């Protein structure tokens, strides 16, 4: 895949729609073969490729750094966990999977309540949903939970007097992620995996027609 022709918006859109249920790459693979990029264009291509291929590893890395930085502030840790959950909800696959598992759990205790948590009926036009991009969680639009959890996170950070410390830890984790993604050389396995995921995405879109 030619990552030079992939824009940052395309990477963000792909991260929003791709499956995040796959396990992270192994520790040995994640921390092997580092080298400086030979040019600015090579650096951009490597950064986009690694951010997409090692997405789960980077997500865990950010949470790990935040957890270490906030180990003495339990309330801030809870706020960080809510922020991580809010970010995860922005991914379509995670939000849909979380919604199904949560409703399935509620059904064991209250089938009537679980039925109310189902998303509203979507009109179908020519075999496709008219609101295909709309994602619901517990019967509510996804953005309701994202905004609610982010607001609760900010309140917890202010209550623990750790907002500046959280921002410092977040910037540190993002800097570590960018440095790793810039130095980690893309291997053949990453390229082959990218082609395989592209094929699955195209096939999934074709099957929805």
UniProtKB/TrEMBL annotation:
PANTHER family: PRA1 FAMILY PROTEIN A2, PRA1 PROTEIN. This is PRA1 family protein. It comes from the Eukaryota. It is found in: Endomembrane system; Membrane. The chain crosses the membrane at residues 52-71, 77-98, 142-159, 165-183. It comes from Arabidopsis lyrata subsp. lyrata. One of its GO terms (biological process) is vesicle-mediated transport. It is a multi-pass membrane protein. Belongs to the PRA1 family. It holds the Pfam family PRA1. The keyword Cytoplasm does not apply.
């Amino acid at each position: 895949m030619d990552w030079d022709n992939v824009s940052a918006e395309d990477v963000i859109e792909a991260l929003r729609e791709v499956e995040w249920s796959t396990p992270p790459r192994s520790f040995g693979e994640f921390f092997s073969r580092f080298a400086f990029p030979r040019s600015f264009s090579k650096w951009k291509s490597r950064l986009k490729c690694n951010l997409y291929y090692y997405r789960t590893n980077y997500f865990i890395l950010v949470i790990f750094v935040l957890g270490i930085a906030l180990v003495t502030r339990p309330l801030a840790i809870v706020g960080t966990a809510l922020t991580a959950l809010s970010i995860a909800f922005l991914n379509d696959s995670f939000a849909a999977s979380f919604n199904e598992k949560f409703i399935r759990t509620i059904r064991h205790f209250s089938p009537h309540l679980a039925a109310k948590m189902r998303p509203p009926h979507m009109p179908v036009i020519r075999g496709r949903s008219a609101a295909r991009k709309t994602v619901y969680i517990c019967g509510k639009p996804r953005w309701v939970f994202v905004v609610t959890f982010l607001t609760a996170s900010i309140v917890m950070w202010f209550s623990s007097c750790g907002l500046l410390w959280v921002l410092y830890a977040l910037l540190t984790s993002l800097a570590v992620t960018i440095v790793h993604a810039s130095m980690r050389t893309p291997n053949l396995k990453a390229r082959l995996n990218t082609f395989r995921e592209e094929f699955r995405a195209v096939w999934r879109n074709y099957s929805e027609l």
